[in-house]
Automatic annotation (TrEMBL):
Record-listed Mg(2+) binding positions: E72, D92, D95, D222
Key word Metal-binding present: yes
Cofactor(s) for this UniProt protein: Mg(2+)
Organism of this sequence: Cottoperca gobio
Cited InterPro entries: IMPase, Inositol_monoP_metal-BS, Inositol_monoPase_Li-sen, Inositol_monophosphatase-like, Inositol_monophosphatase_CS
GO CC term, one of those recorded: cytoplasm
Assembly mode: Homodimer.
Coiled coil: none
One annotated GO molecular function: inositol monophosphate 1-phosphatase activity
Entry protein name: Inositol-1-monophosphatase
Listed GO biological process terms: inositol biosynthetic process; phosphatidylinositol phosphate biosynthetic process; signal transduction
Amino acid sequence: MCDQWKEEFEYAVQVARAAGAVIRKAGECEIKVQTKSCAVDLVTQTDDRVEKIIIGSLKEQFGEGTHCFIGEESVSKGKPCVFTDKPTWIIDPVDGTTNFVHGFPFVAVSIAFAVNKKLEFGVVYSCIEDKMYKARKGHGAFCDDEQIQVSDVKDINKSIIISEHGTDRSPEKVSKIFSTMQKILRIPVHGLRGSGTAATNMCLVACGASEAFFEIGIHCWDIAAGVVIVREAGGILLDVDGGEFDLMSRRMVSANNKTIADRIIKEIEIFEVVRDDAEI
Ligand SMILES: O=P(O)(O)OC(CO)CO
Ligand SMILES: [Mg+2]
């Protein structure tokens, strides 16, 4: 029982590594860029190709009938984002597409697996850095073969906090995002950072480089794998209002401990986003 999903986990690590190699190679050639929801929400042929490779490999290995798949590019092409109790793979083939397009060197493959809507394991392959972050429920979190742990800092004044700006440039949202960031900077914290990939940001919390990462507007595929990695590294997940974390809500605070999380939550200006599992 304790080794349940071990085979799936180990296969996911292999698939993520192979997918990362495809992304690295594609980055050496000319990248054709298209847009999705708005002018700054970018997608490339590599996103589509890598998602097909990942889902194809998983289907071949574990059968199409029993497992479900939520993939960023499939959903953006109209596949409903339905999260059921069935074994479900949640995949972001290229997290940090904008970074990939610009050659900004933080791009990750994110693969998570959930059963009964509970996340069982997560794999984040930061493929330019060649770092494999992975965690299985109850088995700890690792970067390559080294076990990782969140930072033990409790004093917000000694923290580095991560957040991102997202792709929604409506004046109201941009103003709330920057107002929150200003308030956090003025606490003061040691610094505000953002790698451009939510999956990598969560791994930076998991390995103790940052005390917290929060964002409103991220998607389940950006963070699902990171959620397991942060939890297994000893960190916590909360909603931006301090309530229970909900993977489909597009709102998240991940932190090394509750003291840091609560302090940040006090400053977050919340704005509305449409849930990932909303019926459209
Ligand atoms: O590059 P992607 O997959 O669009 O994801 C972004 C946020 O949505 C970075 O995490
Ligand atoms: Mg993403």
